[in-house]
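Support reply, case 0932

Customer input (verbatim):
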Amino acid sequence: MISPDYYKGSIDEYIKKIEYSLQRHSIKIMQYRNHSSPIDIFKVIADRLQQICNKRSITFIINNRMGTTDNFTCDGFHLGSQSLKRSFIKIKNKIYGASCHNEQEIKIALAKNINYIFLSPVKKTQSHKDACPIGWDNFKKLATKYKHIKIYALGGMQITDKKIAEKNNAYGIAGIGCFNV
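Our regenerated output:
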C-alpha cells in the first residue's frame, strides 16, 4: 500500500484512515509517500506510521526522502525513477525499491541492487493522467525477463487486479487509490 499525500487537516484523521486500510487489506508492506509536506510534518507522520507498522509487523518504507535518510526509522526507502538515476549511498540492512517505467530503468535498478520494483503505469491512472500505460502484455514480458527480482504492478490497480497481476508474473500489486485511504 502506498499512502496518499498528506494535505492540510488533521494528522490524526490521516493516520486513522491509513491504519484502517492497513487492517482491512492485510497489508504486508506500507510505503509512506508524501511529497507535499514540510520535513517536520513529514517526520511526525513517519514516526507515527512506523509505530503502527511495527505493532502489525508491516514493513515500513519511506518514499523519496533520500537526502534525509539518517533522520528516519524505517525498514527501507523507495526511489522514484529520477532519484534512481542519481548517485546515492545505500544504508546497510535497509530495503531499497524503485519505480520503473521501462526496461532501461529496470536495468539501472538492477545495477544498483534494488530489492524490488514498481513497474508502471500498467493501466490508466488518476495520479499520472498523461502517462501512457504499458499494458499487461508488456508488463508480463518484463516481469518474466526479470523474474529474479520482485516486480509489483502499479498504475490504475484495483484490489480485483491482484489475480490478473499474478497471472502476468507480478509479485503483487501496489497503489494508493485501490486501498481506499
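We compared this against your earlier run and they match. Two observations from our side: The chain has two domains: 1-74, 79-172. The chain has a mean pLDDT of 89. Please reopen the case if you see a mismatch on your end.
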